[in-house]
């Protein structure tokens, strides 16, 4: 099969040129800049479209097993495919928790049966995400996990974090850390500041995140073992990461599209879709995140796709659960950041392709001869508004509902097979 006439963007190989791609047996068998000779094989006309490596989202909650009323592997994978995401890493806070190989096997087996995209489970760091005893990382690694995380919960015990990092490293697994000092934000539901006082909502101060970012970095520096900080949201956290990287600490981090595009102002109307952890922060924090992205300090962009049912999000702001969906708005958000803030699209694209592939140690995220034919065709000019009708997830909790975007996924291929088509 051929994909002809599109603009191929492949940050891993610094390629940005019009080319024809030939696909055989699920892999890219040829890349022909400047076009190729006609053949009888099936061909897709991609002229006017961008041909991207299928996106890799390293932070997704699929809710399966245990919370299938919010999302399951089938519905979550449909949302991913519609968003041009061909690989996702799913977090361990399911029920039962993915803290042993039987749950890992369940996820991978169900994915084999129903998933549109490649699903890579993240194992728990501690049994039951309780922060007390290490989970069976070695057995889960054998079963197929690609990283470990207690995401949803911080690892409060510093000694346990050190042990977890040392143990994980022996299996070639990286710890993904959700940074939150619960003692500083026990009842908090939004960013702490003038607006939280005005709205009468308990706050989550920036420092509650920054303390743990600093702690994680110091443990990483002491052990020499890499750590990945997920969903960084504060200027303070960014400053700590910048200094650490300058000292040579092996810390990497990701940021969500919503922290790059939205602020706490979104909470003014008590919209529970704008309630998440970390909370939407101030404009100063958001600007610092954009600057850090521009300066290549932030390694990845990940959605923290977190579906919750309509009736759960219909609760009042204090009691509604934390999180929003994000798979279908990832690429349009990246385009928005590119267009509005002038950040190089190739740099942004690397944050959802080559960089997460490198951090997770997985194949994919590039478009060279021999690569997996995981490909996203993107119309960079299409203007559209994200509405409930567009949502492929089982849940519709997005703070981007009603948002206008430029750029839309047209078609998504997994190993050369179409898994999503807009028409
Ligand atoms: Zn988290």
List keywords for this structure.
23% strand, eight-stranded mixed sheet, 423 residues, 2 domains, 18 strands, TIM Barrel, alpha/beta, four-stranded parallel sheet, globular, 30% helix, Urease, subunit C, domain 1
Integer tally of domains:
2
Distance between the termini: 19 Å
Within the CATH hierarchy, at the fold level, what is the topology of the largest domain? TIM Barrel
Q: What fraction of residues sit in β-strands?
A: 15-25%
Mean pLDDT: 97
| Count of DSSP H/I helices | 13
Mind telling me the CATH class of the largest domain?
Alpha Beta
Structural class designation: alpha/beta
Q: Could you estimate the helical fraction of the residues in percent?
A: 25-40%
CATH level 4 superfamily of the largest domain = Metal-dependent hydrolases
Give the biggest sheet. 8 strands, mixed
* DSSP strand tally: 18
Low-confidence stretches: none
**What would you say the CATH architecture of the largest domain is?**
Alpha-Beta Barrel
CA-based shape: globular
Computed CA radius of gyration, to the nearest angstrom: 21 Å
